Amino acid sequence: MKRISFLNGNFIDHSEAYVHIEDRGIQFADGVYEVILLYKNQLIDNEWHLDRLFRSLNEINIKLPYTHEQLTNIMMNLCQQNNLENASLYIQVTRGVSNRNQLIPKGINPTLIMTVSPLIVTTPTSY
Hints:
CATH architecture of one domain: 2-Layer Sandwich
CATH superfamily of one domain: Aminotransferase class 4, branched-chain amino acid transferase, N-terminal domain
Strand order of the largest sheet: 2-1-6-5-3-4
Radius of gyration: 16 Å
CATH class of one domain: Alpha Beta
Number of helices: 3
Strand content: 25-35%
Structural class: alpha+beta
CATH topology of one domain: D-amino Acid Aminotransferase, Chain A, domain 1
Order of helices and strands: EEHEEHHEE
C-alpha cells in the first residue's frame, strides 16, 4: 500500500515528499516538532499536544497558518489515507526556505510536514 504524507498543504506520496536544501530546519535546526499517538482512531491528548506545538512555535516566532481544528482534520485525514487506526503521527514545522543567513528573515512561509507510522500495540504479558 502507498504511504501518504502531508507537506505544505498537500497530501502526497511519501517517496515524493522533499523539502528544499535551504529550508531553515535543515540549515539551522530552526523549527519545532511534536509527536501525537493515534489509538483506535482517537488522537491521544491531542489538544495538549497542539497547545504545546503552538506555544513552542510562538516562543521562536513562527506563525503557522492553521488552527487546532484544521490540524486535527489534516491529521485524521492523513491517518485514514494511510489506513491506520493506531499510529505515531509526527508534525514538523520549520521557519521555511530562505537564503542561508544567520539573521532570521521576515516574510517567509513556514514548512509543515506530517508523517505517520504504524503503532504496534501490544498487550502486557504476565510472568
